[in-house]
Amino acid sequence: MTADTTPPDPSFYAHPENSLGYLCRIAFRNFSRALEKRTLPLGVTAGQWRFLRVLWAEDGLSQRELSRRVGMREPTTVVALKSLEKAGYIRREPNAADRRVTNVFLTQAARDIEERLLPCVVEVNAMATEGLTPTEANQLRALLGRVIDNLQDEADTVLRRAGGE
Amino acid sequence: MTADTTPPDPSFYAHPENSLGYLCRIAFRNFSRALEKRTLPLGVTAGQWRFLRVLWAEDGLSQRELSRRVGMREPTTVVALKSLEKAGYIRREPNAADRRVTNVFLTQAARDIEERLLPCVVEVNAMATEGLTPTEANQLRALLGRVIDNLQDEADTVLRRAGGE
DNA sequence: GCAGAATAGTTACATATCTAAGTAAATCAA
DNA sequence: TTGATTTACTTAGATATGTAACTATTCTGC
Lengths: 165, 165
Description:
2 copies of one chain form a homodimer. Chain A is mainly alpha-helical and 165 residues long. The first copy, chain A, has helices spanning 20-39, 46-57, 63-70, 74-86, 108-128, 134-159, and strands spanning 61-62, 90-94, 102-106. Chain A has a 3-stranded antiparallel β-sheet with strand order 1-3-2.
């Protein structure tokens, strides 16, 4: 049963402000805009940023693993990597052991720009959490994590279309 | 100063899971997928759904006001309304008093489908908040609301390009 | 070893969303 | 009352993102 967790009156969700989906969308959009406002002048779009962040942490991933960590579908990754390659931030290298796999490596330019981009996300997160105690910020992360987990199976079923029934 | 709210160590945000922007994006995406999984069989996309929800609450809004309430830019609204009009869910009516304005009205079909769509969002929200107490769910809403407000000015400056400096 | 299944990546195409720039109508200021 | 400004909407064009379907490669079970 799921009925004892939240007011289940349908009219409650008729108002967007009560809907967690709406709140997550607006919060995400405000984050994106605030971040892109800072990174676009440096020539990096929000889409590129998401991949760079993962690659700064670990270089040489396959495209599939990269997709998983960034949280995007693979065709989205293909497009994003094309733009990153064109911008000179990555190079793609066929894997010798398994020729299906392409590994993605950062260029020096991408490493150089990291220290100018990380402060952007620090600043945006600081601004976003202004007035929140560290405890509250952590609560927010934890609660979002639980919501994400609760919906993960649903989100995945679209992906693994073979698993249906 | 904003430094006393959250761990400001840049490397902290190198990991997506620590970044509120990432968490909001994944949460939003999981919501979207879970919701669309239920509404698409009824012929309604997530984009259409967002506008319908606002119109169910109040009919006859101008496109600008509708954009504001849904949280989309106006060109997005134009596209969405075109698809809603084509699907037979809205009609647009020029305002007699101010001919710049177009008012948007629901058709009977849109009213009929409301009672089949609202349960979808109720179900998705129930699933999302499973294991959360009502208090925690409200905390999450409140915290998201504060983050949204903190970033709202940033998000708006892009919009009112005349205000620059 | 080979046929069929699984895996990695890509292409093709559809939506959704945005910014920038354009049009038409209303308002304001002289 | 007319020129400049503002407002409401639209168009044009870019980016991001997704699903479905395709190719190439590898693995698996006989």
